[in-house]
Amino acid sequence: MATAASLDFATRTGASQHVILSSYSDANAVSGDHPNWQAYLIRLTYFAWLWTQSTHWRATCRYDTDGVVLTDYMRTSLADCNILTLPTGVDGACYLFEFINIRGHECVNCTVPLWNIKGTYPLHTDTSFHRCEFNGTEGVIDFEDNFGFYRAINPSHRCSSGPSSTTQFWLGGK
């Protein structure tokens, strides 16, 4: 996937707690012209252009140190789950993903629950609930959050395995 980062933050900075993005349209760039691994969000105008050139989005963990690893990774098309226009009241709705792997549990072409509540928490999935086709409940901790919101952290998930772990959201083509 040819990609460019849209959102990135490190677990140690707590950015997932203070940069609450439920809708990209209400976001200001965080370090917008200066990419870094602690807290980065490109400017909306750049993001909007990139979105017009893209067909897919994905979330990765620790890309800054590990590159693309398919453990703790998810990918979907913008046609199936448009990250830019996702409603800000999503509370566990099922969306089709081409691939998801959380802590070694994976699913291909299956539905995954997403949460995205404006002013409360940003886009993420919660593996403690098995409400769609993907089932990541084995080895889960209570209310475990993955890919973007880390109130309940599982150290077995690469995005939250340590204080310098990072999470990235990417736009691009398959």
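Above is the first protein from milestone M3; the second protein from the same milestone is given next.
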Amino acid sequence: MKFNRRVYGMILGYVSLISTAVFCSMYLVFTHRAIIIGILLIVSSLFLAAALVRRLNAFQMKLKLFFDAIEDKEHTLCFDGSSSDADMNELCRSLNRVNDLLGSMKKQVRQQERFYFSLFEELPDGALAWNGEGKIILANTSALRLLGIEQLVFFHQLERLYPELGKYVRQKDKKLRSCLLTSVHHRQLSLSLNTMMLEQEVVTLLSIKDISRQLSDKESDSWNKLTRVLTHEIMNAIAPVVSLSQTLTSRPGVDEKTMRGLSVIREQSERLLEFTSSYRKFSCLPAPRKERFSLTGLLRELSYLLQPDFERQQIRFTLNAPSEVFVSGDKKQLSQVFLNLLKNSVQALSGHNAGEILVRIDGTDPLLISFTDNGPGIPDEIREKIFVPFFSTKKEGMGIGLSLCREIIQRHEGAFYLSESRPGRTTFTVEYKPEVDESENDGK
């Protein structure tokens, strides 16, 4: 306000002097009383007008420079406020204060942006945003991981990988703003689409949520309920048959043909009881008893256990992992999972001349444990069935191996899936959220 009053006073003073000089000069010239003095007053009024214009231009140039700097988002500009012109010094100090405030606000905005971006990165669900030209402006790590892509610059990269995603984004029906998508890692993803205006530009937002766990939990729960009912009914029906066949075979006077028939009935009934008992274990899996142990140590122990099989089939086993990784979990249950996966790889490499099995540990949260072999791969038509209880491609298989592995990993709050399968490379991946003591790991 002080600066405004000074400027207004200066302008008013100049205008008053110029008006007075012009009025007096005109009066002296037209009355012929002092023509020379009148002319001098006219010249003086011109000099005063020029001085006023020059002062105003100086203010205008300062303001123009200041607003140009704001438009260019340049807040390091500093005006010199130590000249002999008090009004100009006051203007420079005012502009510097405004510039400092803008710089402080810009710094606060950047800090907030970093904070919100950190939160954005920590989201368990994926989030993508792209502008009208299809350029990706935001993509968190979860989105890239769920979509199975390492780097994303333009949306058309996703369209090449997921053609159905492009159709979903371009659909006209505004009510259909969510859909399901199967990722390259065979995960079930729930997509939700939205648009907004940002700086007069349409920005499309895509949220991605992995619902494989929820679907798998419901599927496992359904199978467990069915298995409990079936095993209960079957065992109640078979147990008396076994008991009765044993009683009849022990009676005297039974002829040889009847004895053979009763023996066959008993053996088949006992085999059915054993088969049913294995499914009861699957449906009544105990809760994990967690303890802290060395994951790499466990994998090395399992490799030693299977070393005779590796040597017999000439399989090269490789464990690619940090020197020591500790996790918290039920060691016996996890050992059963890893041993089953290794045995499956050994069986897949049966008759293979140069078999290879690679176990790799990557990441920290989640921990990725992958089991890869160079066998023939899993045919497309049965990939969706390999985790279903009772399904098996082996002649003597009961069909609970992989389904039991998934159940155990899910009870450890992890994920288990087939990440890749083609001739020459099959990979099963375990995602595990370990309770890792990083200080101890670093000290190893």
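Note on the second protein: The longest helix spans residues 212-249.
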